[in-house]
Amino acid sequence: MKLNSEQQEFFDLGVELYELYEKEELKNTDSLFAAARMKLYKSVLSLAVSYDILNKDSILRYEELCNYEELLNTLPEDHLARSYFNGIQNLSPGMQLSIKFDFKITMQHFWRLIDEVLEQMPK
Fold this sequence. Notes:
This protein is an all-alpha fold. It has one domain (about 5-120). It has helices at about 5-25, 30-50, 55-60, 65-75, 80-85, 95-100, 105-120. Helix 2 (about 30-50) runs antiparallel to helix 5. It is globular and about 40 Å long. The two termini are about 25 Å apart.
C-alpha cells in the first residue's frame, strides 16, 4: 500500500516530530527498544494517515497491544501499519514485554504528536 502525496507529507511530518521529541527521551534507551518504539509509532501514524474515520477515540480505545494486533489483522496484508508492526514481533520476549507494559501510555503520547501534525497540516 502506498500513500498519496498528501498522506506522505503528513506521514513525513509525523516522523520528523517523533524524532525531534523522542530524541532526548530515548537517548539512554536500548537501541532495539528505541527502533521498536519508532516502528510502533509509524504503524499508528500510517493508520491515522490512511483512514479518515480513524480518530483519537478510535485509537485510544486500544488499551493493550493484543487489541491493536487484532485491528491490524483486519487490514490488507500490504498495509503500512502491518508492515511497520511486523518489526516489533521480531524482538526478544523481554523487549516485547516492555512495549506491551506501557502500550496505553505510549498510544496517548503518540496521539499527542499526531494531533500536533494535524495542526500543522494545511486545511
